[in-house]
Amino acid sequence: MTALDTVQDGSPAMKPGDTINPDGARIFRLFGWIILAVMAAFLLNNYLTYWQNLPGINPIFGGPANGSLPIVWSWLQLAIYAAFVLWAIAYVMRNQNTLRQDSERITNLNTFLIRAAFFSVLIVGLVDSAISFMRIEELLPSLVGEELADDLGRSRFRGAYVHMPLIGLSVVLAAFTRGLLGFPWLALLVVVAELLIVIGRFVFSYEQAFLADLVRFWYAALFLFASAYTLREEGHVRVDVFYAGMATKTKGYVNAVGSLILGMSLCAVILIIGMGGKQNIINSPILSYEVTQAGFGLYVKYLMAGFLGVFAVTMMIQFVAYFLDAIADIRGEPGGRDHENHPVN
Questions:
Q1: Which residue has better confidence, 255 or 5?
Q2: For the CA atoms of the chain, what is the radius of gyration?
């Protein structure tokens, strides 16, 4: 092997006629897609158990049931896991995607989810602020009538009949606005909301709880939803002593082990602890449409509890994509970042 047969970081170069055998990567692709399938089945079962009052899978393993439905429903819920895993296996076996192709496909799915989440907090924040402002100024009864104005003062009504349709609208908008994540815009809106608080307090002597709630709502979303995107762009801070000087293959080992042991395990712990029961820290506020104690604040505290779930789901998806990309680096597949920085040809 000559100097022309290696890239600048010392790893073997891909020659024009070289190919990567996709069969060798299948075990890693199976692992990644099965992880995502199990997570999707867990989330669906969480909804069926605690929102639709199905018993859950606990009775099968000797645990308590949720509700009084027969155990056959538990077996049907367990079958959801099997069905999702079989779908993942079938997907991997019927196509010859490379690791990088699967990584890119998973990342694109995650980008859509994050985009939908950003539209949700943007639209819900603006609409809920408008409702809170009109309640404070007693404008709602004249606009929507006394009965609806009273209903909008109840968190369960506002959550189910205002927030949820707006979240559905956000998903539709996300499907038709590809390429727009909205991080800069949301950061700007956080600054604008904070500026309104300052101007209202010190210029007009006007201060209301919903403005402070809006800042916290948007800032929490900005911090938690942007984490997966930042991981994709290698934007997280590394305590880097040795990594920058490593060969591409060595970096692949570091990233693969880190994604598996530190990343995916953390996300799994958050989901299990946060959504493992009806009274857990994510499920409980969402099921009760929990709000803050401020009299005329935003009714979005339950959504902020859900932010932790969105963080865990999007980070799990991105860690799977990152893991597959790292294995591709180990196997020497072309198309990675280091290959872009040090082209072979």
A1: 255
A2: 24
